[in-house]
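Researcher: Let's do a round of design. I'm pasting the structure tokens now; please hold your answer until I've finished.
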């Protein structure tokens, strides 16, 4: 694509990066076919190619964002299916991240939208605040219908709908400390305790630590870790995202320098995509660029890490039919497609892949709150495809997808690690009936 940026504009490294990305696009439109918002809404401006044109126009003319561009960029899920499809290697992720930061700087949203976004940024990345908000949400549940009737209050209604009926207890394993591996030492890793996941389902990281230590891997929870920054990053709040990134880089750098790390294990693929991008996000900060690149190189999804271990024979051979839902951040963001399915199959599960596996389930960070109608359409489409597999359980590697799919599916939805842990001798995952785990011959 031809671009017309002035030399003065290109002196801004963010603009220079976006110009490089724009020049790679050859307008072929292949990406439109796999874009969930184009598939759902049928509008070229809600396709990757349409958004690329809008972003180019805004940046080239040095214009503040307007209502039209904000509407179409807000509808983008950042699922990155377009990056998997694009034959020209267009880095849509970095382009839309730049556009979102530009929108945040130059566009004044309506008051309720501003308040909702400020509240999400204030609450979600902090487990204590998030836990308190979930308690409050219980009081608001009877008013869901009322909120859903007023367009500006729909996000509040969506939030209340997604809030779980009960909140699990805080896990002691989320506290900084060391979990020694059993038997011959196979490795040493840090684990990201995270934010929303540690409140909604602390058992995911507990199970991960339990399985890894049984396999001989030492697991450290370094002091100072926090939210990865993805939630605010996708809202264009660049400074907040970079502050989270720096905080984690500092925490993991101390752990690397103290006793070394083989990997930084992440159990939420949405976080994994962002942490693997820290090197890029902090490239312009001389004090952090190298450290952030080192952290990104060490970041691994738990299934990526387990696939590199010499696993023993599983203790149980379940033969249960499992539908594997590949989160967008897993398959498009990190290009991890093989490992989770192979691990489940090796552990004795019969793995089925739902149709249209490339399409997002509509979770996408805060998307199911801020764009609840498109999100619900995508969720229902995803659940129909999952249920058509005839599986007894859904496995996936991202807490957002678990919450989203579980809100409409009839079968249990669990993190992949819980099924693997069970097959390798761990306890039965909570919330799954015994008959869901028995052999399906
Ligand atoms: S990130 Fe997803 S929703 Fe956004 S343009 Fe690409 S395919 Fe479409
Ligand atoms: S597939 Fe790639 S090159 Fe083609 S229009 Fe989409 S982004 Fe541009």
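Researcher: That's everything. Go ahead.
Model: Designed sequence:
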């Amino acid at each position: 694509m031809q671009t017309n940026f002035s030399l003065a504009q290109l002196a801004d490294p963010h603009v220079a990066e976006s110009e490089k990305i724009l020049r790679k696009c050859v307008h072929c439109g292949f990406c439109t076919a796999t874009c969930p918002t184009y598939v759902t809404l049928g509008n070229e401006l809600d396709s990757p190619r349409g958004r690329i044109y809008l972003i180019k126009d805004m940046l080239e003319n040095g214009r503040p964002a307007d209502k039209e561009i904000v509407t179409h960029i807000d509808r983008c899920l950042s699922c990155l299916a377009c990056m998997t499809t694009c034959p020209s290697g267009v880095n849509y992720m970095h382009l839309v991240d730049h556009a979102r930061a530009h929108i945040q700087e130059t566009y004044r949203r309506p008051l309720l939208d501003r308040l909702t976004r400020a509240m999400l940024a204030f609450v979600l990345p902090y487990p204590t605040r998030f836990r308190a908000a979930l308690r409050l949400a219980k009081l608001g549940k009877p008013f869901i219908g009322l909120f859903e009737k007023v367009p500006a209050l729909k996000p509040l209604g969506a939030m209340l709908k997604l809030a779980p009926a009960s909140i699990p207890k805080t896990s002691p394993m989320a506290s900084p400390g060391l979990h020694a591996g059993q038997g011959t030492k196979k490795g040493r890793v840090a684990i990201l305790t995270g934010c929303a996941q540690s409140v909604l389902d602390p058992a995911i990281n507990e199970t991960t630590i339990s399985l890894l230590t049984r396999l001989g891997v030492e697991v450290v929870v370094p002091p100072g870790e926090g939210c990865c920054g993805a939630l605010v990053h996708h809202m264009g709040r660049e400074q907040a995202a970079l502050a989270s990134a720096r905080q984690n880089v500092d925490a993991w750098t101390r752990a690397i320098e103290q006793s070394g790390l083989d990997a930084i294990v992440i159990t939420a693929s949405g976080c994994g995509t962002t942490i693997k991008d820290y090197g890029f996000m902090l490239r312009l900060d001389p004090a952090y660029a190298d450290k952030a690149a080192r952290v990104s190189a060490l970041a691994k999804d738990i299934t990526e890490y387990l696939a590199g271990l010499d696993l023993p024979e599983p203790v149980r051979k379940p033969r249960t039919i499992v539908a594997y839902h590949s989160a967008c951040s897993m398959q498009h963001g990190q290009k991890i497609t093989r490992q989770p399915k192979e691990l489940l199959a090796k552990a004795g599960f019969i793995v089925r892949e739902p149709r249209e596996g490339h399409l997002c389930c509509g979770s996408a960070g805060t998307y199911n709150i801020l764009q609840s109608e498109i999100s619900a359409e995508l969720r229902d489409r995803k659940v129909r495809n999952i249920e058509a597999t005839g599986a007894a359980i859904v496995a996936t590697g991202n807490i957002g997808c678990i919450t989203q799919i579980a809100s409409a599916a009839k079968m249990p939805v669990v993190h992949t690690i819980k099924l693997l842990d069970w097959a390798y001798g761990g306890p039965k995952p909570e919330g799954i009936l015994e008959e869901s785990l028995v052999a399906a011959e």
